[in-house]
Design brief:
ten-stranded mixed beta sheet, Rossmann fold, alpha/beta
């Protein structure tokens, strides 16, 4: 990576730490020593008690709360590069030994914004900086339109109630770790954007290395780390799972003084991931191009939409993916059928089956595009797309011609707030360069889980939980489905479903996820 990119990444504040080991251990190798100052203190905790609402009722959890603890020796901004650890010691008065429990690493990133544990005094308190937890963030300097404001720790279930996976983890007897990370809007005194790509994923990797390097001192089993995240946080969770121990990140981690250890994780939980950004504009038009833009009642430019759809056709063909459940080769031509048969109709079937007969009849009367017979829902693609209604994003959805999208800010550099990251948008730019800068391709690889899955990274996680709502038009349904198909094609265990009639940031089966963590980690 060029020096100017490294300086922008470090915000002009950090220097190399000579004592950091250059290598990166694999999960099967002995974990190296921690960097000076990165030793976890198991005695530095505060005992707390909280009530957690679970699917089986409220639980009173007493736990040990550690932190915030800075997880790198040479932080650019310790307010963000710190984490907290919550370790249950009793649940409803019954003692719990979490010494060898799974560790749930719940990030709260939304919109590729910064998130912090500064001032946190308990489990589940991590939020995205400057935006109330659980709220929707505005476009512009906050999260992109429709983005959830807080990721892995604050989602919404079908009843509109918040879901904190960190709290549910401690209520299940697991250890919960909540990492802060830098994000795209952070600017230092010199005007440098120091939280742009790849800061967030590097910080998460550094947090994992800190946990692994402190095996034996830190409660919980570091070999059973399960990451969670939603939206941009879901993309980062997928990226963390796909890119374990990739040498592409080593120079960034050395610069920060990250611990000498593996950054591989055991499993990844990914809700509505905003990923594969360089191909997301084409995928979005393929999926939602015929829907009007929310708030306008107008279609996007159909000529441009068609051009972007053609790009998706070419990209999808290049992936050479096979659909799950023996579907066969997965192309743009058969992807609507794949989504209908693998995800959408089963999702509607589960939704309708769970209803009372009266409620189901009322729902079907309002939604005549669905044929429900013999306990199975049937509908076609056009009916489904009409049912979803207006698309949330304009054209292009991610690499905006005027550099106004949050993702443009994600690929800023130095004092430049936003840049184009696709040749298509750069050529049509109404603001900024007409060409993609030379460092962008490398940054895209650092930020895209599909890159690491396509190259079959041997240290990726092998267990995947992927979820999104069927009314989520923050990105194309193909994004999460391609991640699932790519991981399954490599032989990984993939649990991927969609929530019927739910939007962005939904989590309708949090209890099932917590149970899944226990099952896959044995």
């Amino acid at each position: 990576m060029q020096d100017v990119s490294r300086r922008a990444f470090l915000g002009g504040a950090a220097t190399l730490v000579a004592a950091v080991a250059a290598g990166c251990a694999t999960p099967d190798e002995p974990i190296g020593p921690t960097h000076v100052g990165l030793t976890f203190d198991p005695t530095a905790y505060t005992e707390k008690t909280t009530t957690v609402a679970t699917s089986s009722g409220a639980k009173s959890v007493t736990y040990r709360f550690y932190g915030p603890v800075t997880y790198v020796a040479n932080p650019v901004d310790a307010d963000y590069q710190s984490l907290t650890v919550s370790v249950p010691i009793s649940i409803d008065g019954r003692p719990v030994d979490a010494a060898n429990a799974p560790i749930v690493l719940a990030n709260s990133v939304g919109g590729y914004m910064p998130s912090s544990v500064k001032g946190s005094t308990g489990v589940g308190e991590q939020t995205m900086t400057g935006v109330p937890a659980g709220s929707a963030a505005a476009s512009g300097s906050a999260a992109p339109s429709g983005e959830v404001a807080s990721g892995g720790n604050t989602m919404l279930n079908g009843a509109g109630k918040t879901v904190s996976l960190a709290k549910l983890a401690v209520a299940a007897g697991y250890v919960a770790v909540e990492p802060g990370v830098r994000g795209r809007t952070l600017v230092n005194a010199k005007g440098d954007y120091y939280g742009v790509a790849p800061a967030a994923i590097v910080d998460l990797k550094a947090a994992v290395r800190y946990l692994r390097a402190n095996a034996g001192r830190l409660p919980g089993d570091v070999e059973r780390l399960v990451s969670t995240g939603t939206s941009a946080g879901g993309a980062l969770s997928a990226l963390l799972g796909a890119s374990g121990d990739s040498p592409l990140y080593d120079s960034y981690l050395r610069d920060l003084g990250a611990a000498s250890a593996s950054d591989a994780i055991f499993a990844a939980g990914c809700w509505c991931p905003i990923a594969d950004l360089e191909n997301a504009d084409g995928a979005y038009e393929w999926n939602w191009g015929t829907n009007s833009i929310a708030g306008t009642g107008k279609l996007a430019d159909q000529k441009l939409s068609a051009q972007l759809r053609d790009k998706f056709v070419t990209y999808q063909q290049s992936l050479k993916l096979t659909g799950r459940n023996g579907y066969g080769p997965l192309t743009a031509d058969n992807y609507t059928d794949y989504l209908l048969t693998t995800y959408l109709r089963p999702s509607a079937t589960r939704f309708l089956t769970a209803m009372s007969a009266a409620a189901r009849s009322a729902y079907l009367a309002k939604n005549p595009f669905i044929d429900f017979a013999a306990g199975t829902a049937f509908f076609d693609w056009d009916g489904y797309v009409d049912h979803v209604g207006a698309r949330k994003k304009s054209l292009p959805a991610f690499d905006a011609f005027d550099l106004s999208a949050g993702e443009n800010n994600l690929f800023g550099r130095g004092t430049t707030k936003a840049r184009h990251f696709t040749a298509y948008s750069a050529a049509r730019s109404t603001s900024g360069s007409k060409a993609v800068d030379a460092d962008i391709p490398d940054l895209l690889n650092l930020m895209n889980p599909m890159y690491h899955l396509r190259t079959a990274n041997s240290q990726r996680c092998r267990k995947w939980w992927i979820r999104l709502g069927t009314k989520d038009s923050d990105t194309s349904l193909t994004v999460s489905s391609n991640i699932a198909a790519a991981a399954a094609g490599l032989g990984d265990e993939v649990n991927h479903r969609m929530y019927w009639d739910q939007g962005h940031g939904a989590n309708d089966d949090a209890a099932a996820f917590i149970e899944w963590v226990g099952t896959v980690t044995k």
